[in-house]
């Protein structure tokens, strides 16, 4: 009898659960479409939010956003049939354009591996794409991958049109590239590290924004910093016999252009109103953000 009770105890609960599921099978089945709708809705919301983020990146990159896709274009016709396929095709057009541009501009003997298989990576590597554009491209590629590998999830026509519009805007920027930048990114990053060190020391808070303005106006920022902070800094890399001597003229000219456009708006634009070194750091970073005239060291 004890063994029988134990056996019934083991069997009875699975049986009860099975019976409950059998009785409630229709109500449970009726809930499944609701669950699917939630899944589709969540995907659509995330896709939409990602598109909005890419749009912000594109604006930061100074892109003129394409506002609409003509109804007679091949992409629009494909959107009508398959929004997911249209997204893949839009991304493919970017890759084709980037590959063509790299084929035109990349120097012979470049050490970058698989050059034409990773043309977008190469353009980012060389600095031909601004950081904001590069981030937008990475996000577009991520959304393309989601659309391509999530066949069970629906892509709305409106989202596909938005994606194609953003892709077209970036495509135009890639097509507008006429040459690869010339100044090494390494020089800018080394300068940023030196400025950051001086700020951290706390010894040069006396360098005002006005002091920096004057150094920029005279186009002698590097000499001014070398003289003012000689006991705590090393700007020998940028001296006349240093490896980055040619960079100095370029840097002074770029800073002079930023000064001409933004002097007096430091607080509004960068949140800086006291320390001159902080302003130099922000404006040096701005040169990188603009992405013009530099390329990273290939070594």
Summarize this, please?
This protein is mainly α and 299 residues long.
Q: Mind telling me the C-alpha Rg? A: 29 Å
Helix and strand string, N-terminal first? HHHHHHHEHHHHHHE
Main-sheet strand order equals 1-2
The biggest beta sheet reads: 2 strands, parallel
* Class by SSE composition: mainly alpha
Q: What overall geometry do the principal axes of the alpha carbons give?
A: extended
Give an account of the 3D structure.
It is built from 13 helices and two strands; from the N terminus they run αααααααβααααααβ. The protein is mainly α. It folds into two domains: 41-176, no CATH class; 183-295, Crystal structure from the mobile metagenome of halifax harbour sewage outfall (Four Helix Bundle (Hemerythrin (Met), subunit A), Up-down Bundle), CATH 1.20.120. A two-stranded parallel ribbon has the order 1-2. Helix 2 packs parallel to helix 7 (157-176). The model is unreliable at 31-39 and 292-299 (pLDDT under 50).
List its salient traits.
single chain, 299 residues, Four Helix Bundle (Hemerythrin (Met), subunit A), 2 domains, two-stranded parallel sheet, 2 strands, 70% helix, 1% strand
How is the secondary structure organized here?
Layout: H1 2-23, H2 25-60, H3 74-81, H4 83-105, H5 119-126, H6 131-149, H7 157-176, E1 183-184, H8 185-201, H9 209-217, H10 221-228, H11 245-262, H12 266-270, H13 276-290, E2 294-295
Parallel strand pairs: 1-2
